Known about the structure:
By secondary structure, the chain is an alpha/beta fold. It has helices at residues 16-24, 38-44, 50-68, 94-104, 140-150, 178-182, 186-195, and strands at residues 9-11, 29-31, 73-83, 86-88, 108-119, 122-135, 171-175. Strands 1, 2, 3, 4, 5, 6 and 7 form a 7-stranded mixed β-sheet that branches. Helix 4 packs across helix 5.
Amino acid sequence: MNTISGSGILLASSSASRKAMLAAAGVAYTAEAAGVDERALEAEMDGAEPAEIAQALAAAKAAAVSAEKRDALVLGSDSLVEVGGNRFDKPTSRANAAEHLRLFSGKTMTLHSAAALARDGQIVWVGSDFARLRLRDLSEDFIAAYLDAEWPAVSYCVGVFRIEGPGVQLFESIAGDQFTVLGMPLLQVLDALREEGALSS
């Protein structure tokens, strides 16, 4: 992997899209999934704004890995979807994914993506962004064919889509940064990495 960073960072995630973003941007990294109970944290923050929850989850992931890897600069990230005033997590089954898509059909989805950096177990930076994605009206035939093609890959995706794949067919318009849609506010992350000395400025 060609990189333009120095010592590199530790990504507290197993997300393929976040790994791909960092690699494409020339950021050296290693990855380690964070053992954070996301649903428990969300329950504790019941009533909070989705952007706040996304930031808290990103920070929790970064802090959890940083507490074990104190010599590393750790990047955590998380995304949440909001439709019609309701927050949606990753689908728990194919049937649940189909239910989500039926609920999303013809509506506008707000996707909140957040990121956080931690060093020595302490959060040193948090950022977030959002995008609005308008879904077209989805037929039952389309939903079934889509899940035939994309399940179980989209079981790991909030919003039940991979925008870099067939998931783009769900939408009629998208307003927002492409990296935010992919699951991380990358431009903010790169700026924070420069501030922390992990990328050359």
